[in-house]
Write a structure and sequence with these properties.
This protein is mostly helical and 459 residues long. It has 23 helices and no strands.
Length: 459
């Protein structure tokens, strides 16, 4: 059992989630009382994309009662890290408190507390988490713990703070935007000097440069990070963000080349296989080839209702509104609404989303369902994205822009609609006439009317 535990920790360090899960499952089958292994199994399942399994694993170990040791509290924090940052932060603090009773420093708990605080900064766009995140990471720097990793995280902390200040200009000191961007670049570059072969500080620099709008410099940083990356997850991250930068810069061949690599790393991704390459092809003037990608997605035998909705929105974005309406109208009358659900999605949610995209349900119904969910932001992004696609098909670019920006600001995930929304929002910022294949303010509307008008124009 101890060998399996040690091997699982090595697999986690190598970001091999599948191997870690298998080893930890073996561990808990032999030692079902090992709460650390149960919690770590839940964390690995979250990282591996098995959210429902992770929730079940966590519920199983919670039946054993409240942790009574620093390590158990720490692993409990890991188990809740992606699901509930507030609970994770409480667990990390308890881990530190238990360890402090032994007059000892607990760097792992300090590190992950800072990461959870950064996660809150990203998701809530509130500055409340900033002081504890920055203070925790500076502790690690002063203790010389984890090498360049705290520098990488400090860069992220300051970059997120800059974005929050930028989003509230007029109510906060505007100079703090540039100051935090400057600090973000400083920490990223100090981390690079400390560990020149570590890709993470270079990645932090790329993220900061992208946020600052310097896309060409961000491409360079992503390319340098890619050359240093030592495992597939890090390589995927560089490709995942670099193709988008190429797209914004108009380097469509480079964008498609990176997308082909992304699809090879994640063949099941509908975004890599349909949405993203279709947008690039359309920009190259190959509009019918772009639309064919969404037709193929809808006709895929394994396609579920969410794939159908994405295909319809993709066709709308590409100016084929009538075809999108026909696609949705011709769908199975009794579709499997439970297929492909990602918590907090429910069958009721997917049914309402399908109805909205068909023009049979109001957007307010989606807002109500999202507000009732445990993690509303995970639903807001897709609702706003599909509403924006409908508005764009109608030629209402201002309303579409607001919808894509709202999807971006849902901060649901960098693999879901927040990413999709930013992809299009930046393209619309770059080119006020985008998309050229849809005339602005068409006289006829194309299904699924958005009830609420846009409140403001583009930035």
């Amino acid at each position: 059992p101890e060998t399996a535990w040690a091997q699982a920790l090595v697999a986690i360090g190598q970001t091999d989630d599948a191997k870690a899960i298998a080893l930890l499952e073996d561990r808990v089958s032999v030692s079902p009382e090992d709460r650390r292994a149960w919690y770590l199994l839940a964390w690995s399942q979250w990282r591996g994309g098995a959210a429902v399994a992770a929730q079940r694993t966590f519920a199983r170990v919670e039946q054993m009662g409240e942790p009574q040791a620093a390590d158990t509290w720490f692993f409990r924090g890991l188990a809740k890290h992606y699901d509930d940052p507030v609970a994770a932060i409480e667990a990390y603090r308890n881990a530190q408190a238990f360890r402090a009773q032994e007059q000892a420093f607990y760097p792992q708990a300090v590190l992950h507390l800072a990461r959870a605080r950064n996660q809150q900064l990203y998701a809530t766009r509130s500055l409340a988490p900033f002081p504890e995140a920055a203070d925790s990471l500076r502790q690690l720097v002063s203790h010389e713990s984890y090498g360049a990793f705290p520098y990488y995280l400090l860069s992220i902390t300051h970059r997120l703070a800059a974005e929050v200040y930028r989003g509230s200009q007029g109510t906060r000191d505007g100079s703090l935007v540039q100051q935090n961007f400057t600090d973000s670049l400083k920490w990223a570059r100090e981390g690079q000097r400390l560990e020149p072969a570590n890709d993470r500080p270079v990645t932090a620099e790329a993220e900061c440069l992208e946020s600052m709008g310097d896309y060409a410099a961000a491409v360079d940083a992503r390319t340098r990070a890619l050359a240093l990356a030592s495992h597939d997850r890090a390589k995927w991250e560089s490709y995942h963000y670099r193709w988008r930068l190429h797209y914004w810069l108009g380097d469509h061949s480079a964008a498609l080349e990176d997308l082909r690599v992304c699809q090879g790393l994640d063949p099941a991704s509908r975004a890599y296989g349909s949405l993203y390459p279709a947008l690039v092809s359309a920009q190259q003037g190959e509009l019918d080839a772009a639309r064919t990608r969404f037709r193929s997605l809808a006709q895929d035998p394994d396609a579920d209702v969410q794939d159908l909705i994405l295909a319809a929105s993709g066709l709308r974005i590409l100016g084929a509104a009538e075809e999108a309406e026909g696609l949705l109208a011709g769908a199975d009358e009794t579709p499997d609404l439970a297929a492909g659900l990602v918590p907090p999605q429910t069958s009721e949610w997917v049914e309402a989303l399908l109805g909205f995209c068909r023009g049979q349900r109001e957007f307010a119904e989606l807002e109500t369902l999202a507000a009732q969910a445990s993690s509303p932001w995970r639903l807001w992004g897709e609702a706003h994205f599909h509403a924006a696609a409908i508005a764009l098909a109608c030629g209402d670019r201002d309303k579409a822009y607001q919808g894509f920006r709202a999807a971006e600001r849902s901060f649901d995930s960098e693999m879901r609609y927040a990413y999709h929304g930013k992809l299009i929002r930046v393209q619309m910022d770059t080119n006020a006439d985008w998309p050229p294949w849809i005339p602005p303010q068409q006289a006829t509307e194309s299904g699924g009317r958005v009830k609420e008008p846009a409140t403001t124009g583009r930035k």
